[in-house]
Amino acid sequence: MVEQLLGTQRFELVQAFTAAPSPRRGVSAAPVVDLMVDSPPGELHLLVVRRPSGAITFHVPVHTESAVSRATSRFSVPLAPGGDPSQRRGLVSLAAGIFVLKVAGLLAGKTVPVLARLWETAAWKLLQREEGWLRVSPQDLAAGSLPRLADFGDLAAPPERNLLLIHGTFSHAAAAFPELGSTPGASGQSFFQALAPVYGDRIFAFDHFTVSRTPEENARALLEALPDRPSIFDVITHSRGGLVLRYLAERRDRFGKMAERFQLGRAVLVASPNEGTPLASPQRFETFLGWLGNLVDYLPDGPPFALGFVSQGLAWLAQRIAGAIPGIAAMDSAGPVVAELQDQPGPAPGAYSALVSNFEPDANLLQRMVDAGVDAFFATANDLVVPTEGGWRVDPGAGPVVPGERIGCFGRSGNILTEGNGAVHHTNFFSRPESIDFLVRALRGEAQPLAPLDPNQDLAFRGRRGAVAVTPAPGQPPSPAPEMPVRLAPAGRLDSSFEDVFHLSILEESRSTGSNRTRSATLLATFRNAKVLDRIETGGGEAGRRW
């Protein structure tokens, strides 16, 4: 990640070193990296920490003192307790990588919305992309470049339908939907082959800014480009694209007569943040950048513009430039956009289907989430970016707008079983044959051969610090038992008493040196955020071992 950040030319590496704290008997507080950085006045620095779990965290100075010829910035970063990894079994090294970066190209006197627009415009120009309507074919998706739609002469008039793809945050259509052209369904047919009788070659996409424009602004730009006559569109949205569609379908009064140009047929909301995502809160901008950086680091095929935004956002953070970013704040769970869309009126009955995932991280990723500081935000099922149930909970006060028979859900407590190829998370839906089958049936108006989900029931999920929900999906084998003891929580919610449990775990190891075999162990004690590691002596005999 540090090399990637340096590659954006927004930062220069000043210093890099390793911090390896040693555990001390009886000391439970996490050690702290306390670092002073000297620099000329006006120079800004940022600290990047690679945690032992692999998590990346970003830190701005906690205090800066300036003089005429020099300035000093202080960083104070708590680290997890250390220990000798050679004396432990099943634990990663506790050494952390510390990188001091200098911010290049300082800006002043700009607000965050203005900076966001400047950055997004420059990012799209660099990749030679523009906002607007595109024509979609499997060949162009494979090439990674969709041609601009010169005119709407092929747009079908009612009652024939057209298909529209609307991408999500930090993306564009060619990057968001490439697998639609290459992933076959269970029948062996591709997405395009299966839907050719419905749409022919009338498949389009709309590229739009997702950071500096609101979903309402995106919807207005989409409508302004359409010919002044009604056209029926079926729609596949991904992530934030669902909010753009909902403005088109549910807030038609905002657009006056122009709204008649877009008539919604059937839509599939894929991983839509209908209830927002806690990561998008303007008050959590630093955490949002941290987790986005970890997603870029963890997911090789993450959103194409995400790294550039992380780099630019960190520069803003270092300069203490604050404020809401319009396109991101639209997904704030407590923000006005989500509140407005989750109120009446809703879509036409039967319009929406939903495809979601209840992604459960393995032990390594779970620890990375903990270290990155985002596990507390996701106290519910999620796909690493948005809460899972929010993908189908549209206008919750109006009853189930998306009924259980039109919900497809991967993962624990879901109704789509998968074989191999890894778990489904926020960015890899369209690479799965099961997703292709679900999309094709939904757009054809066919019944899904899936067990209906209860839209009002929370899904089981693995919560932070080991809390595990144990309700499997119908026909799904139970998850394997964890290596470490955990407390089990009721399906769909955390057991709040879990955090008040004092845990003692013994990590045993045996060594052979020639003909001699010795036994040793490490005692791991945890309570809430405090951890203590201590080496203990062991004994043995014919009757067994004693500690």
Task: State the gist of this model.
The protein contains 13 helices and 19 strands. The chain is an alpha/beta fold and 547 residues long. Helix 2 runs antiparallel to helix 9.
The rounded Rg comes to 26 Å
- Termini distance? 43 Å
**Sheet with the most strands?**
7 strands, mixed
Low-pLDDT stretches = 81-92, 464-500, 509-513, 527-531, 541-547
Explain this structure:
The chain is of the alpha/beta class and 547 residues long. It is 22% helix and 23% strand. The chain is built from 13 helices and 19 strands. The strands form 5 sheets. The chain has a 7-stranded mixed β-sheet with strand order 8-10-9-11-12-13-14, sandwiched between helices. The chain has a 4-stranded antiparallel β-sheet with strand order 1-7-3-4. A 3-stranded antiparallel β-sheet has the order 2-6-5, with no helix packed on it. Strand 17 and strand 18 form a beta hairpin. The radius of gyration is 26 Å and the shape is globular. The C terminus is likely disordered.
Lay out the secondary structure:
Blueprint: H1 2-7, E1 11-19, E2 32-39, E3 45-50, E4 56-59, E5 63-66, E6 71-78, E7 96-103, H2 112-126, E8 132-135, H3 138-143, E9 161-166, H4 173-176, H5 191-199, E10 203-207, H6 215-225, E11 231-238, H7 241-250, E12 262-270, H8 285-298, H9 306-318, H10 326-329, H11 336-341, E13 352-358, H12 363-372, E14 407-411, H13 433-444, E15 468-469, E16 488-489, E17 503-513, E18 516-527, E19 530-536
Parallel strand pairs: 9-10, 9-11, 11-12, 12-13, 13-14, 15-16
Antiparallel strand pairs: 1-7, 2-6, 3-4, 3-7, 5-6, 8-10, 17-18, 18-19
Helix pairs in contact: 2-9, 5-13, 6-7, 8-9
